[in-house]
Amino acid sequence: MPPTFVSVLILIGTLCTFFYIFRTTVFRQNHDKNGRKLPPGPCALPIIRNIHVLEKLPHQSLHHLAKRYGLKCKLQNTCLMVPRAWLLPSTAHLRSLVESVKKSAVAGEVVDLSGRVGELIGDIMSQIIFGLAKDHGFNLKPLIDQTIHLHRLFNISDFIPYLAPLDIQGIGRRLKRTSKLFDIVFEKIIDEHLHGTDLEGLKPHKDFVDMMISMLNQPMNPHDEEQPYIIERNNVKAILLDMTAASFDISAVVIVWAFSEILRHPSDDSSPTRVGGREFLPERFIGSNIDPRGHDFELTPFGSGRRGCPGMQLALITVRLVLAQLIHCFDWESPDGMQPNELDMSEIFGLSLPRANHLLAKPTYRLLE
């Protein structure tokens, strides 16, 4: 065999080897171990991978990655949800609330804090979940209120299971009727997001529904007959029900109860409050290292571990921002000359223990123009 021919074979073999290594490396960077395509992202370097991308200001680096690659991007082999401003409570909603309360303060009117705060939280969550400042005519709030009301009713079937098929009180029928209404609304929302009609021109960013639809019917394990897809349509509707039922009500209830305590104790009262025969001292956590995020079992308002609340961080930010804004901009007092200790603090049994009656207060604008 001539030397020239051998050299050509060696050259071809070397080129094929390099091409195979290059193609395999690129494929592995863009696909996971099961062969599924990963989101786009910057190229990784050997050993350090994507550490160099984060630089000195990681939050700004993530912002630039979001502008270049979109909401989902890949660093190393990890899929990240890059944070964006619309995932946090919009300051426009807070400004609108402050302006509306300011007008009431100038007119000397009494403000329905329960209604105003509930509307604010509904707007924020509608923007995050559906991509719109309002629920776009879906009329979710009455359905949520009705569902919460039905769940807090005394149902004798819960205590005597043999009576459940009879549904003596009709609670089961009403819950099924409400469930069907939710299903109709969520089907319409999913269809509009799938087809891009009506909503496309009204929202500046992708929302939570868009993110779930992007994973809809994506194969997870073709050999698993019970769960062949990552998420299915019924899963999307179930998650939407959890998101709306939990988020539209609980944060608003917490804010209203906090304001109730502020109105009831306008000045620092040194006398101890007794609950159940013991002194109630919530300030005992001030200055301590106890974390409310589930790491310390002395205080677990959001649960812990796998059963912890997924909206914990959003709830903390929302409650603090709304309370701080309203307390900073206004002085508050009970309406009609009511004394602080005369404030009605009765509650309704339910999932979030809301007030029995709406909280009314009279604001006075305290900031300089």
Give an overview in words.
The protein folds into two domains: 3-84, no CATH class; 86-365, Cytochrome p450. It is extended and about 105 Å long. The chain is mainly alpha-helical and 369 residues long. The model has no long low-confidence stretch (mean pLDDT 77). The chain contains eleven helices and seven strands. 46% of the residues lie in helices and 7% in strands. The strands form three sheets. It has a three-stranded antiparallel beta sheet with strand order 3-7-6. The termini are far apart. Helix 6 runs antiparallel to helix 7.
**CATH T-level topology of the largest domain:** Cytochrome p450
Structural class, by secondary structure, is mainly alpha
Strand share of the residues? 5-15%
Return the domain count.
Answer: 2
DSSP helix fraction: 40-55%
Write out the strand line-up for the largest beta sheet, numbering strands in chain order. Answer: 3-7-6
**Main CATH class of the largest domain:** Mainly Alpha
List segments where confidence is low: pLDDT < 50 over at least 5 consecutive residues.
none
End-to-end distance: 95 Å
Reported for the largest beta sheet, the result is: 3 strands, antiparallel
Please identify the oligomeric state: single chain
State the fourth-level CATH superfamily of the largest domain.
Answer: Cytochrome P450
Number of strands: 7
Shape: extended
- Average pLDDT number: 77
Query: Helical region count?
Result: 11
The SSE order reads HHHEEHEHHHHHHEEHEE
Instruction: Write the CATH architecture name of the largest domain.
Output: Orthogonal Bundle
Q: Any idea what the radius of gyration is?
A: 28 Å
